[in-house]
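[09:14] KT: can someone run the structure on this one? pasting the chain below
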Amino acid sequence: MRVVLIACVCIFARTEEIQPKKSVIAEVKADRLLEAIMMVESGGDSLAYNSSEDAVGVLQIRPIMMREVNRILGEDIFTLKDRWSKTKSIAMFNVLRSHLKGASPERVARTWNGGYREKKATLKYWAKVKRHIIKHKSPQISIIHQ
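[09:31] RB: done, C-alpha cells below
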C-alpha cells in the first residue's frame, strides 16, 4: 500500500504570519522495513528521546541526520523540532532512502543507523531490524545480502 503525502513546510515570520518556504513531496510507504526500523529505534513511540545522543522521535533522528537530509535536499527544509513529528520523520527517512537509489534494505537500515561508511557496529542493528521483518513475515521485503 502506498500513501503519498504532500507536506508544505513553513517558516514563521516575525509577524507570526505563515509563509511557505518550499513544498516537499514525500512518499510515505507502508512497508515492513520502515515499520521495523521504527520498532527497533523507538518501539513506535513518537515521543521517544535518547538524551545521550539527542535522538528524537519514532525514528530516533539525531541532529546530524537532520542536517544530512537537508544537505541532500539542498536547503534547510527540516528543523530539529520536526524530528518529533512521525510524518516529518518518515519524510526524512524517505529522503535518505531515495538518495541511496535502490539500495538493499540492509544498506538502507545500516546507513540510517550509522551513516554511509560500512561500520561493523551496524551489523547488530541490521540483525535486529531483520528479525523484526521476519517476525512479521513481510512478502514486500527481500532480505538478501547485497
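[09:33] KT: thanks! Strands lie at 2-12, 18-29, 49-50, 55-56.
[09:34] RB: yep, looked fine to me
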